[in-house]
Amino acid sequence: MNDFIIYLSVGMCLIMTVANGLLWRDIKSPAVLHSLLWLTIVLLHRVVPHGMEVLSVEIYFIVFISMFLFSCGAVLGFNLAGKNHQASRYITVLPDQKIVSLYFYVALLGLPFLILRALDLASHGTTDNFFVNLRLSLIDEENPQGYGVISYFLPIAFSCFFLCLLDKDTSLKSPKIWLPLAICLIYAVFSTGRTFLFLLFIPSLLILSLTRMDFFTLGKALVFFGILLLVFFVIGSFLGRFDAEAEDVSAFWLYLLGGITAFQEIFSTSHPLEYGDNTFRTMYAILAALGFDVEVKGVLQDYVYIPSPTNVYTVFQPYFKDFGIYFALFMQFLFGLMHAVLYGFSKQKNPVAILLYSLSMYPLFMQWFQDQYLSLMSFWLFFAILLSLPFFNMTVWLRKSDADRFGDKIES
């Protein structure tokens, strides 16, 4: 009977995905991408021999309800963004190149400090692997060490690259593209977190697809993500992670499917609610920095065995731990609304909306892994300021008639 209900739940997820595809008719829409993401996760978890515990009926139902509520939020958000979603086919305003150049030189200036700090952090390690030593120093919560203010150079470098991609007339082979990209890759590698590669390349793909109408094809997208996954696991091998993690479950399936399995473990275990310690962590951190006596939860989570150790629990975990499963599902509605508002304005070729919507695809794609929304709120606010600043002295919110005239001028 359980198997029947599980397959019924998977079928409902499939129907929801097809319905979103028919409704939106755009693979770049948040509802379609969200549905495809979670359908892939539940399908693979069901049919692939991964060696982890089988998901319960409740987890499949939670995934389906999250897809439904996210889609409802997306419909509302898209309509809130306005009815005229085809106001212009072209970006009408480009960023101030002086500010973009400033970002580039600031990011370039930060590289020597980054490398010197990385060498210092890795010098205290006990292994022969430089990146393993560096990683252990960066994630050690008992003796916290890190890049400090140097870490702010990374979003500056990434913002420079994203802003350069915005101009559809700039060739992808131009030094204006690959020089900022090279700097971004250095920052990503020395950060040792492989998710920074996703943060770099997922928004890049969305920016290219939204600004270059003939760029995005399904084949290119599959090749792109195939290369990204390959790089992801190659870097993992340099960090020495796979040997220890692959005893019971292959590293690939552990990273791809371990999050939802780990969430099932905490969902099935009773625990007292934490009432915002995770959801509002950023605000508590700000209060602590201002001198208030508040406890700030650590970013790293405790490990659970499924049977291999993992400490990622999907996007549901922090909200579930704070206020229960209904709150975690309600957050999906809010996320859908937020993504769709940005998507609606990006369809009007608002450059700031294109950048912010593309950036927001990173936490959406990481939902299967861990929460990257409110847990990184200060990071996103800083990123949003960096991406918006080059447009402050320009008329981004043009009237339609002015936008059309300016767009025609740019195209000519």
UniProtKB/TrEMBL annotation:
Stretches that traverse the bilayer: 6-24, 31-48, 60-81, 102-119, 146-166, 178-202, 222-240, 252-273, 323-345, 352-370, 376-398
Keywords: Ligase, Membrane, Transmembrane, Transmembrane helix
MF terms in GO: ligase activity
Protein name: O-antigen ligase
Organism: Candidatus Methylobacter titanis
